[in-house]
Amino acid sequence: MNTNQRFAVSVHILTLLAASDGLLTSAAIAESVVTNPVVIRRTLASLRERGLVRSRPGVNGGWRLLRAPGKIGLCEVYRSLEQEGVLAMHSHPNKKCRVGAHIRDSLNEVFTAAQMEMEKELGKYTVADILEDVLARAEK
User: Fold this and answer.
1) Which domains does the chain have, with CATH numbers?
2) Would you say residue 1 has pLDDT above 90?
């Protein structure tokens, strides 16, 4: 799964957990995301490593948030993915071409600035903000 999808799925999971009164199983979460529970378990394992969720094993087990939804910023979730930025450079431009030889350096500056702005914007929102918006939309 690419970074963009992993981020969206991670936010979906965290928002679903924030909306839940109790523990949720990976199967229940997978039903909401419409994906395989294995994908959900992998994503949850990553979120657990970052201290965002906790699991309880067993028959009555499941997942829950470790912090209040208002204390989980979207930028923190994005950075927890430890992936390349949203804008990725193509691999092998022709170094003998006057454009190809310098395109990576030029685009790198633009991509770095864009990445910083995106993270700045994500920093304005929390899981609680997403939950509030989702619930408001569900009421309409």
Assistant:
1) 3-87+126-139 (1.10.10.10)
2) no
